[in-house]
Amino acid sequence: MSILSLITGITCYAQSILIDSTFYTDAEIFPFTGIDSITGLKMSGSVSLESDSSLVRVILSNGSGLEYMVFEAYPLIATENDFSFSQQCDETCYLDFFGPHSLSIQLINAAMTIDNLQVLTNGTGNLDSLQYICKRASDALKIEAINLNAPRFNLEYMAGDNPSVADYYYDKKIIYGEKYNLGGYDYYMKGIFSFPWPGEKDYYRGNIVKTFDWRNRHGANRDSSPYYDYDTTGSGWMTQARSKGNCGACYAFAPIGVLEGDINLYFNQHLDFDLSEQDVICNSTGSDGCHGGEPDSVFKYLHYPGVKTENCFPYWATDNQDTCEMLNDVCNDPDTIVRIHSCSGIWAYDTTEILTKLITHGPQSVIFRPQSGNLHAVTLVGYIVDPVDSSLIWIYKDNAGQIKGEYGFIYAKVNLMFHNDYINTPVTIICDTPPSRQWYDSDQDGYYNWGIGNKPEGCPGNEEDEDCDDTDPYLGP
Predict the structure, then answer these.
(1) pTM of the predicted model as reported, rounded to 2 decimal places
(2) What's the confidence (pLDDT) of residue 201?
(3) Which domains does the chain have, with CATH numbers?
(4) What does the DSSP 8-state code read for residue 185?
(5) pLDDT at 70 (0 to 100)
(6) Could you tell me which of 43, 119, 128, 350 has the fewest CB atoms within 10 Å of its CB?
(7) Contact 466, 447 (CB under 8 A)
(8) Measured in Å, how far apart are the chain's first and last C-alpha atoms?
C-alpha cells in the first residue's frame, strides 16, 4: 500500500469509469465522454518504479490550460517500488464543477496500471476549501515519507512545509517546467540537499582553500566584527533572499543577486541595494517573462541600459503586458540605475576555475538541473569541501524566500551545469549622490581590505596584496 493513502470524506460517487489499462510511456486518455462537470475524482491502480529517479504523475485537464494533479509517486514518497493504490486524489478530492477533458500520464523509468476512476458529479458548498484541505493533507504525508526514506538514500537534509510545497501542480509547472522531476528539492527545508540518484555531485580538485563564504568575509555576519551589517539573518555581504513567487523568474533573481552582492563588495560597504527583478522580467531581451529566460541576456541588460531599483519598479511576479507598461510609465524617470562593466563566464565542468573566480571576483550566477524539467538558476556565494569524499557542498542564495535553509541560503551537493557567470568591475551607480569605494585596515596589520576589484586609487600602503581577514592582525594577504 502507498504511504500516500488519504481518507478524504467523499463517500458517494455518481459514476465509476473502468480504465483497466497499463502504461509504459507517456500517454493522454479521454475517459470522460458525456460528463460535463465533476466535483471530485479518485483513481485506483498500481505502480512499478524501476530506479531512484522514477516518476509517475497523472494530471487532470479541462482542455483549456487548467490542470490538477490526481496522483504522484516517486521512490522518495513511496514505501516500496511496486505497490497498488486505491482512491487517490492528490488535488482532485474535491473540485468546483470542473469540466474534465483528459488525463495525462507522465512516466520516467516507471510503469502504471489504472484500474478505474471514481467520479462525483454532485456536491455543494466550500468545494475550493475542501480541495485545498485535502491537498495539504497529501502534502503532509509526502513530507513524512521523505523524512522516513532519507536514510535509505543517504540524504543529509530534512523535508518540511514551505510555500513551494503548498503550490498546486499548475503553479509548479510554470516554475519547474513540464514533467518536472525535482527529487524532493521542493520539499527541502534544512541540511545538505542532494538528489536521491547517484552521480549528481561536483568534486574538489586543486590547491585552493577548502571553505569559503561571502556572507562571512571579514566577519560581516558576526556582531563582534567592524564589518558587521546588523542583519540577524546572517546574509553578511550578500543581500537577503527573496521569493520569486509563482513566476519562473530564477533567471532574473540569480544575476540580480550577484549584482546586489557585488555592489556591497566593490564599494566595500553595506549599501544593500534592492534591485528590480521585475524590470528584468518586463524589459530585458531574452526574457520569456514568468516562463523562463537566459541569465546571459540579463547580464547584457545589466550592462546597458542597466537595472532600476525595487522602490521605483516593484516586484509583481507577473509578465502581464499591461502591468509592465504601467510599471514602465510609473518608473519612466528613475532616480537610480545600476550598470556593470561586463560579465565573464566559466564552463561549469571546471570546478577549480569556479572556486578561484568566486574568491577573486565575487558571487556567481550558476545553473543546475533536476532529473527533468526546467534548469534552475541561483546565486553562488560559497562552498565547503566534504572531508569524507571531497565532494563540493555549494552554498547559494535561492529565490524561494527565507524559509528554506539558512534564511534562504542553501547547502547542496548538486552538479552545476553549463555556464557560470560573474561580473567584472567596476560597478556604476547612476544617482544624485553615488557612493565611493572605501578601504580599511581595521586590524592595523598594514594590509588593507578594499573589497573586490583593483586596488582603489588613494588606498594607502605599499603592498598590492589585499588583507584576507581584516579582523585578525596575524593574517595578511
Answers:
(1) 0.93
(2) 85
(3) 15-149 (2.60.120), 211-427 (3.90.70.10)
(4) G
(5) 98
(6) 128
(7) yes
(8) 61
